[in-house]
């Protein structure tokens, strides 16, 4: 599967994902499918009102950003009407990791530090519910942007020192769970503590909150 073949159908729409334009950045988050519609609007309004610091487009009002988000969601769902098998497999694999005592964070953090903070919070909750937590894995927003753009997902992993597992053990378990779900996993150096999954086609219909009642 080449780079083009591992790109989702959302690239065929009027608002394809990219990393250099405001609309493309919104489309990236819609394609990943983690944020609600209201969270997308809230997160991009501040950027839209000071566009020059981030993107080439002119500044946009809050209402204009909200309208653009709705247009992009509609456009995405016109291109992606069903989840791809590999998207389902990836999300199922992350859930399976929780059962195996491996806490995960997927696309919700903007960087590694924030992902680790989210993981610590999740681990505490799991321990309080009697789950034996051994390690963690994560893909932050930059990683999932790369997955959408190029069909490659880097997953970091590590341990909780008090749990007794080693990084190599967690890395092997994460890779094994991914493979068990039919995902292509590249050989990796354990010293990097990063596993690369790909090429994959990650497609999900956007299931966020209701769109605003506004015309196109």
TrEMBL record:
It comes from the Bacteria. Residues 23-200 form the DUF6891 domain. The lineage of its organism: Bacteria, Bacillati, Actinomycetota, Actinomycetes, Micrococcales. InterPro entries: DUF6891, Metal_Hydrolase. It holds the Pfam family DUF6891. This is DUF6891 domain-containing protein.
């Amino acid at each position: 599967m080449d780079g083009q073949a591992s790109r989702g159908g959302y690239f065929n729409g009027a608002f394809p994902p990219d990393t250099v334009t405001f609309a493309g950045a919104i489309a990236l988050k819609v394609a990943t499918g983690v944020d609600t519609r209201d969270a997308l609007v809230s997160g991009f309004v501040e950027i839209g009102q000071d566009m020059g610091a981030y993107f080439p487009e002119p500044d946009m009002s809050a209402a204009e950003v909200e309208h653009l988000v709705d247009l992009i969601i509609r456009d995405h769902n016109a291109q992606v009407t069903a989840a791809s098998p590999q998207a389902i497999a990836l999300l199922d694999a992350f859930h399976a990791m929780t059962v195996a005592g491996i806490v995960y964070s997927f696309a919700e953090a903007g960087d590694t530090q924030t992902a680790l903070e989210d993981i610590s919070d999740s681990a505490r909750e799991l321990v309080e519910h009697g789950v034996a937590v051994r390690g963690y894995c994560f893909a932050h927003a930059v990683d999932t942007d790369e997955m959408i753009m190029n069909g490659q997902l880097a997953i970091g992993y590590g341990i909780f020192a008090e749990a007794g597992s080693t990084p190599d053990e967690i890395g092997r378990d994460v890779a094994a769970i991914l493979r068990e779900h039919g995902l292509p996993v590249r050989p990796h150096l354990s010293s990097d503590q990063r596993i690369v999954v790909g090429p994959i086609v990650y497609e999900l219909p956007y299931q966020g909150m209701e769109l605003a009642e506004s015309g196109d």
